[in-house]
Structure to design on (1164 residues):
């Protein structure tokens, strides 16, 4: 019998003798490997934190004691210890890979972005104090999240608490990729001195401090947590763990196994055949600039792998590559100032994480009209977790003055836009990198993108005009073909290219020969592109119908269900059009 | 002759003997006092930094050496030393109170929000290194800005620079009001130990460190800056200055004179008669909850005065008041977690500064559906600096799922909304506090705001419907009256109350008896409220015209000019309506 079989709640953990806890750790690792091999997920971070999680649940009393896990991507062992092991391991889609209060009272918040745990925990601690309650509040942070500004703001405010507050820093020497920045040098110094260095970031902010070298030793961890339990002031417990612990490939190649697709256990680690992707043509573009000794600077904020900045690329770029660490706010200001200083910054962020940067986009970038290039990856309606949706970047970016936000639809268009953005010196330019398989026309795009807000008329027709943005240009083509086949309508098809403006001339010209304009965008409707078209025509007799996502957080909903729910299926759109033009 | 008369550029500062520099400092102080007394502005911060600025320009060579001033509200002496003294002192509206690259090559960026200087300076330093240039890059930060997450992200990344990088920390022991947080305790410890404490925040992040006790002593400052000039690594120069130096009332009452209205020199500091404002009814509301021993927590992020949280209020609230310091991101997560923990948080932010919090509003608040109340002050079209516009909060907040964003139009409505927001437990609620003189109906508002998105039909008419949001409800009334007077149209007048949704029933009902709907909102049109109404009617024959601000950064443009430019004058609107209904 496996030890995990008798664990149905944290109460059961407390009953285990120490010897069985090590077996439990092994059982949990098997569960993590099975889940990630079955459906993909975070591997290295969770393998590294198994013992910490067991010790936390052994010493503290969740849910009366409150845990807040940063990003909560390290919650896999926690899920298995809090009554969800069956679903987590075997019925995997029933249990998410992040904290989820709807699943369990042991998950205190829905969490998926980095650097929020300390802030949230400070709020819980203050509520406890105001309400005269007594319990421990424990924030668990690490794996790169400490460099985010929100974490620091929380640490600073925690310095004002005169009550129980425990921050567990899980230091596995890594972010998603390698760590960058002065903070991480301090963590290294603290590790090297077994916590005794005079330079101590946490102490400087008013925290008590404790170091635990053997972060994968349950006994040592229990001892440490018992010491700090019920403490009456803020303390940091700095724990040194091994990312990927217990699965050799993950221990040896930490970045590759930070998050992994399903099926890795059966495959040898073969070198996959290089295929051309939007990521690969981006890195080729940047390497080419580097080879020509141009002052290019490729920038990521801690997610190099997610934007195609693979290790060999980073090495080749050398000084022309910056990972600012998980610090999206800084990344925008940094890119803006690089442009101001005469360099050529190209910053790659994910749609969901660019949410951290609204004010920097507005103040540090747009107001200053610096010619930085921002690449926005993973902008799309999709089956992601609610914390990682890629649908809000259009309203976020496109309603800020001065920024040019572009939506390419194929390889050549993307390269032409990237080339223009890189070479010009007038505008901050963001490009929504297509989140669809790479499509090539084979014909170089010679469009002059400096003529802002000029939409491309792909096919001139009548009665119905389809304005199909970025990823949804393909959908526009399909609707156009169906209208021809089913209704014998030669619809107009437009690729707007620009998200941040409307082509007034072209739209005005449509009025004479068209009754209906439909807009298609792969993002949320509210505040988005289509509404601008609706506003443009709102005083005319032109009818407009906007297609996109509804304003809601969807959580791991399959794409076909999302499309159906949002009325984005081809037949739904055709039916709408039939009604609107009758 | 005044010394300042012979200063027309930093070159002239370099020629001065030390004795004349002290006189120059006195001349500059007179200039600051004259300007602020004439047109209002930042007083204490600039009086405190006169000597630092003289010494900076004496030692470094701007513009080849690059200065980046945080918030840049401490740029008054800098402006006077860089060829702009005449305009700054006498033709005041010609020269802004912030960095402005259009004015001078000595201003490296347009800056107005806090905590950006280090980030921007890191980018300038990296550009310098990539381009093989040699010059100093100097970020000047202080007066409360160091607690912002972006500053920390920049500090962390600076730890990776192996080249010249100088951060001047102007420590005047204050933020706008008193300082809060562990960081400021560390600064105090450093001051108390003359820089020798083992706990050193800056050293822990990899910086060299130097302390200057006499921060208003030009000779000491020159010595310090000469020592660090051309240094080949990142260093912090921590300078202890006196906020308000040289003007006794500002030295004694630092918060009151942080920023001051014009005319203070002629007036005695009389206690002004208390008048009822949206701020005062807010603090009364909060104090009442405190007196009833409810778990209310009033929160500000470093701007208590701007939201009416006056010193006596703060004192009375005691533990039920939190100033999280300048850390807007944290303030949202903190408020959300307070609600989660069972307390009653009411967080007050300014429209311009809530821009820092998009991701926290989305992830920490909205996704978690915690019932925090967020009060948004200063949301309006106005003559502010480009860095402080209050027009973007509607697209920012209203396109995030789950948040209820309310726009009251008078005292009773505001109180009813505040009361509902505070008492309910289902929704994150933001309220756009009116930025107009308080208007009272004298009749208690008994609306049940839990019935979301129910617009109020104020006057039922025909042909034209006016949907007038928040601050612009008054304008809606005026348009309604003019339509009656001039065109004999009994227009429908609607107070929508909710920014985050549309009242489908009411809007559908208008279709039968109306030809035109106009929307009025005191904010930017793009991504805003009106566009949602346009989208709603876009497939019908209803014409819609949206009124609000165009998507642009306006800089100190008088309100009447803004209204004219945006077509918001009553006659412009009436003329439009005439054309649209003919």
């Amino acid at each position: 019998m496996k030890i995990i079989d008798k664990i149905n709640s944290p109460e059961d953990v407390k009953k285990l003798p120490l010897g069985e806890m090590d077996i439990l750790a092994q059982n949990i690792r098997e569960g993590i490997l099975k889940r990630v091999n079955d459906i993909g997920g975070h591997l290295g971070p969770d393998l590294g934190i198994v013992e910490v999680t067991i010790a936390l649940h052994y010493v503290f009393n969740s849910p009366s004691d409150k845990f807040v896990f940063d990003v909560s991507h390290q919650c896999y062992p926690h899920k298995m210890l809090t009554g969800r092991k069956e679903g987590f391991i075997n019925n995997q889609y029933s249990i998410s890979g992040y904290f989820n209060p709807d699943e369990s009272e042991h998950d205190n918040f829905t969490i998926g972005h980095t650097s929020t745990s300390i802030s949230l925990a400070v709020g819980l601690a203050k509520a406890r104090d105001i309400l005269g309650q007594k319990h421990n509040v424990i924030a668990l942070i690490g794996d790169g999240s400490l460099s985010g500004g929100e974490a620091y703001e929380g640490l600073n405010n925690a310095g004002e608490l005169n009550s129980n507050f425990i921050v567990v820093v899980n230091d596995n020497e890594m972010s998603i990729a390698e760590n960058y920045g002065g903070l991480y040098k301090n963590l290294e110094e603290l590790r090297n001195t077994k916590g005794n260095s005079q330079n101590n970031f946490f102490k400087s902010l008013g925290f008590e401090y404790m170091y635990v070298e053997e972060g994968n030793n349950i006994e040592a961890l229990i001892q440490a947590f018992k010491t700090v339990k019920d403490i009456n002031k803020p303390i940091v417990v700095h724990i040194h763990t091994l990312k990927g612990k217990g699965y050799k490939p993950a221990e040896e190649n930490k970045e590759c196994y930070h998050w992994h697709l399903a099926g890795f256990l059966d495959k040898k680690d073969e070198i996959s055949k290089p295929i051309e992707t939007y990521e690969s043509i981006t890195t080729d573009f940047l390497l080419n600039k580097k080879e020509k000794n141009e002052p290019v600077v490729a920038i990521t904020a801690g997610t190099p792998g997610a934007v195609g900045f693979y290790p060999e690329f980073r090495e080749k770029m050398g000084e022309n590559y910056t990972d600012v660490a998980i610090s999206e706010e800084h990344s925008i200001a940094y890119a803006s100032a690089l442009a101001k200083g005469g360099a050529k910054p190209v910053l790659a962020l994910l749609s969901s994480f660019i949410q951290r940067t609204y004010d920097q986009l507005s103040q540090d970038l747009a107001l200053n009209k610096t010619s930085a290039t921002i690449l926005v990856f993973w902008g799309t309606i999709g089956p992601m977790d609610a914390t990682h949706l890629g649908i809000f970047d259009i309203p976020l970016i496109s309603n800020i003055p001065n920024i040019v936000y572009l939506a390419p639809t194929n390889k050549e268009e993307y390269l032409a836009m990237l080339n223009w953005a890189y070479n010009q010196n007038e505008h901050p330019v963001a490009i929504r990198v297509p989140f669809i398989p790479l499509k090539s026309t084979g014909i170089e795009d010679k469009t002059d993108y400096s003529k802002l807000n000029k939409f491309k008329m792909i096919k001139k027709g009548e009665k119905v005009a389809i304005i199909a943005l970025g990823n949804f240009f393909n959908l526009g083509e399909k609707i156009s073909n169906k209208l021809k086949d089913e209704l014998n309508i030669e619809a107009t098809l437009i690729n707007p290219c620009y998200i941040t403006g409307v082509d007034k001339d072209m739209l005005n010209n449509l009025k004479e020969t068209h009754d209906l304009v439909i807009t298609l965008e792969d993002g949320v409707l509210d505040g988005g592109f289509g509404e601008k078209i609706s506003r443009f025509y709102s005083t005319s007799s032109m009818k407009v119908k906007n297609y996109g996502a509804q304003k809601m957080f969807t959580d791991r909903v399959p794409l076909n269900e999302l499309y159906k729910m949002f009325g984005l299926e081809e037949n739904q759109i055709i039916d709408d059009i039939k009604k609107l033009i009758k």
User: Anything to note?
Assistant: Residues 97 and 106 of chain B are 14 Å apart (CA to CA).
